[in-house]
Amino acid sequence: MCIRDRFHTARADDFGHDRRADRAAAMLLAYDTYGSLPGHVPALDVGVVDADGSLRSLAGAREAYLLTGWAPGTLYAADLRAVAGNGVGPRDLRRLDALVDYLVGLHVRHQGRLASYTRAVRDLVGSGEGVFGMIDGYDDDVAMAPPARLRRLEERCAEWRWRLRGCESRVARVHGDLHPFNVVFAGDHDLALLDASRGAVGEPADDVTALAINLVFFALDTPGAWGRGLGALWHRLWSRYLRATSDLELLDVAPPWLAWRALVIANPRWYPALTADSRDRLLSW
User: Are 278 and 220 in contact (CB under 8 A)?
Assistant: First the structure.
């Protein structure tokens, strides 16, 4: 029997291959696994096609790397810690306003493929970084988060996949992981963002809830922090954003995104110092 070499490329589709990173992952997975199956044709090489049509092999590579620029300044998380302990000041209000105004400008409704919204919702619920993955990351003996409770939360989140059908026109440019450790301030108004995720296309509520839930998080285990200013920032965030965008529908679609972020914060693998009482309050909410 003669086995001829075959040259494979991939094209975009709506079945988890819409991003170039998806297609690259499929090729790398094929190269890593074909040789483990008896009788399977071997994977001889894997690589990329350059702009000029030449081939560049990745067969000898191990892990990927990414090189980015450097943004001077301080993480916004440091601001929230200071507010939790010392109260809110004029600079805190200016920075919160600057961040909200940035989001208003960022969340331009996408004129492209509506399937990108469907993908964002699918990733929210079923991906390894989404609800299913976060719940799988809980050990069975986590205080206030037994498997039965997590299962009920998972089932309710899964229902939202269908409740969000018909909302595809909301698809917009987003950051995808807008928590305070991914925001750097160099001044009261000068900010830079780190580590955009999930293709930078999806539901605006993703970004708003990722920021909002952290105002809750920084208050949970610091008595009085909500009254000292984190509660005021919470209300200012929502009111300023909704007033600027008139996107009241965001309140209708936000619950599963907020639940996902709460599951992240309540997971001791990510935040081991969170008390059991605070975890219970998050999951009850």
Answer: yes
pLDDT of residue 4: 60
Q: Are 17 and 118 contacting, i.e. CB atoms less than 8 angstroms apart?
A: no
188 in Cβ contact with 73 (< 8 Å): no
pLDDT-flagged residues of the chain (< 70): 1-4, 111-112
Residue 179, burial from CB neighbour count under 10 angstroms (0-12, 13-18, 19+): buried
Residues in the chain: 285
Calpha distance 95→102 (Å, rounded): 10
Q: In which order are the strands placed within the sheet that holds 74-75?
A: 74-75, 183-185, 191-193
Q: How far apart are CA 4 and CA 41, in angstroms?
A: 10
Query: Nearest CA to 222 among 186, 284, 275?
Result: 275
Asked if 199 and 173 touch (Cβ cutoff 8 Å), the reply is: no
Give the start-end residues of each E strand in 132-198.
172-173, 183-185, 191-193
